[in-house]
Amino acid sequence: MVIKKILVFVVPLFISFFKGQINEDSIKAINNLYAQYYTSAVLTMSPTHKWAIISDKNSYGLERAHLVQLQTGKSEDIPLSYNNYFFGDNLLIIQENERTIVKSLKNKNTIQLKGNYLYEAFDKVGKLLFYDRLKKELLLFDSAGNKLRSYEDIESIGKSHEQSQIVFRNSSQTFKFDLKKLELTQWKSEDKVYWQRLLNEDVISLESNGQNYLIRHYGKLNNIKTKILHIQEGFYLDSLSTAKMTLKQNRYLILPLVKKIDKSKVQQSLILYTNQNAYYKTPMSQMAVFDLTESKWKRLPEGSDFFSRQILLDDFGTIMSFDPSVDKIENESNVTHQMTIEKKFGESKIMIDNSHERKQNYYYDGLTNRMIYFQDQKWKIENLNNGLVSEIPFEKPSNFTSWVYNGLSDYSSGNAYSTNKKGFWIISDGYDLFLVDLIHVTAKRLTFGREKDISFSIQEDFRTKYLNESYWDIPKILQVNMNRKLILKAFNTTNYTSGIAELDIKNLRLKMLATLDDVIQEVFVTDENITFTVQSYNQPLSDLNQSPFDFLTAIVWHFGPF
Asked: Which superkingdom, per the lineage (predicted)?
């Protein structure tokens, strides 16, 4: 395959060389030749892998997209957009600038919405929500693409997927809408609203009457309770950063406070020799937590917190905090800081051993209250209950070090994944997977690929990777279900073949499901099938005229059940 690719590039230039010149016609001929070639990629896929959207692009201006039915290989052209979303297997949302298309995959009907709509899918109740901030318009559709409701003059909106309800507001009223029952509740209120969410069956709101910030509860029988929110002295509420406001445990309201700067004092210009990053000039948002049940502040920033950062490690108030603005010499590729762990939103604080802020260097296990982290080219476990640090006893710890920057970056060669079994994690060294017991500090090897030059890896869904629930939350990581067989990607680093493997963790059995000469890229797994794409010089992804099971030509291979 590679030889054919090279010849395509070499032959035209070789001929032109012997002609003694590269003229305008030869350049045009070469451009016309290569304008036929393009790179294909899967943009998104429906939940059951029945449908996929595939794009084709090249450097000669080609940009197009196709809606493909994977079981049959049939495709149709659709607009190439910046965002696509499958609402089940029935609806496709295509978003362009100033236009949103809602396309029925059953009857091929389409609805066009002019404007910049944001959408939110409520899968449990089969409802689809669209909101345009500029037009202040809210639209509600069902899973068949039928418009159920529309509201105008909507200033803000909040949602709860667990309760399948939304809360929104116009200039004079607050509304709660039950998406399952299609029932609307409303309250009269005229103050400025910064943030609103559902709190059990009530609505909780942060508002301002021009003099004070107010916390309001909108309850049953038009019952409204109001409390003044007193802001910590020396700080102000960053009301422009409403996206940073969030609610945890239906009790703790997290707000961004910023340290005030006394602008009345004359600022003297100084020239300093420092290692401090110039980025740290304007104070940054600090986490403040208000207990709605007790009606008091649970956590407030320190008076010296200008640039400190807080990261929520779980939903129960475990916070990792550090100050990245310290003046010191640092390895810029993987910076280190003195880290602190707070429990229950600041009730207790301890210093921890991990010093890296790079998210791939540390993980937190809330069930055992332990940190799993890569530091000094070793994977370690710290028991936060007693401060005991243990090195994970891998047979060859050096295999876990990435040699980016000659190993000086302190990057790990693989990742760590939580499991559904308490205290057990899976850690990769770039070739093999190891099951680690956090409590007893043991490691068991699950695969044996390094000796055969085969790299096994867990495929994460690129659609959800690195997503976090709020500004403060650490991105969620993949959890491996040890009760089910684990699908792995396999890549031979010697002959560059690849495959799909199935790992039975309980019985330590590895079975190859597919092997091919091309390089496997993304792998998508459902309960019914496995779909994956490969990098190949044979044929673009969108050229699916041949059988979808002929993966050497069709490029997208779809099989199941398994």
From this structure: Bacteria
Question: Would you write out the chain's pLDDT as a tens digit for each of its 562 residues?
Answer: 222 222 222 333 333 343 445 567 778 887 888 788 888 888 999 988 899 999 988 888 889 999 999 888 889 999 999 999 999 999 999 999 999 999 999 988 999 999 999 999 999 999 999 999 999 999 999 999 999 999 999 998 998 888 899 999 998 999 999 999 999 999 998 899 999 999 988 999 999 998 999 999 999 888 999 999 999 999 999 888 888 999 999 999 999 999 998 776 656 665 655 555 666 778 999 999 999 999 999 999 998 899 999 999 999 999 999 998 876 666 567 888 999 999 999 999 999 999 998 899 999 999 999 999 999 999 999 999 999 999 999 999 999 999 887 777 899 999 999 999 999 999 999 999 999 999 999 999 999 999 999 999 998 876 666 677 889 999 888 899 999 999 999 999 999 899 999 999 999 999 999 888 888 888 888 888 888 888 765 555 444 333 333 333 334 444 443 3
What does the block give as tokens for 193? 């609203």
Q: What angle do CA 456, 461, 466 make, to 5 degrees?
A: 105
Name 149's bridge partners.
Answer: 140
Contacts of 109 (CB under 8 A, 6+ apart): 103, 145
Q: 119-127, long-range: CB within 8 Å, 24+ apart, which pairs?
A: 119/85, 119/93, 119/95, 120/159, 121/85, 121/87, 122/161, 122/164, 122/179, 123/87, 123/88, 124/161, 124/164, 125/164, 125/179, 125/180, 126/88, 127/164, 127/179
Sort 399 into a burial class: Cβ within 10 Å, 0-12 / 13-18 / 19+: middle
Determine the 3-state secondary structure of 481 from DSSP: coil
In three-state secondary structure terms, 36 is: coil
Identity at 355, one-letter amino acid code: S
DSSP β-ladder status, 416-419 and 479-480: parallel
- In order of 68, 70, 526, the CA distances from 74 in angstroms are 6, 7, 21
CA angle (551 as vertex; 548, 554 as ends), nearest 5: 60
Chain centroid, CA 10 distance in Å: 42
- Length of the chain equals 562
Question: ω into residue 561 within 30 of 0, thus cis?
Answer: yes
The CA distance from 247 to 464, in Å, is 21
